[in-house]
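Folded chain entry —
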Amino acid sequence: FRQAEFDITYGKGISKMGSIIDVALERNIIGKSGSWYTYGEQRIGQGRENAKAFLEEHSDVADEIATKIREALKATVSPNGIAKPVGAAAQDDD
């Protein structure tokens, strides 16, 4: 079985921005120091809800992060289409 976690907001559905934040944190695309979330040198919010609100207001930043997530996920798939473990993405297949 697989386990999935995501935010569901009443009247809005599944939170795309929440999912972007979660995956970007896992892939070190955005950082977290204490309660602050950062993207590059830019602080995007104190607390997860404020970071989500920032990404909703700044769709260009959200799109840029989503593009980097897709690129990182592509790097974890081998040429035969089988997913590599996250830590093995940078290793050679010698």
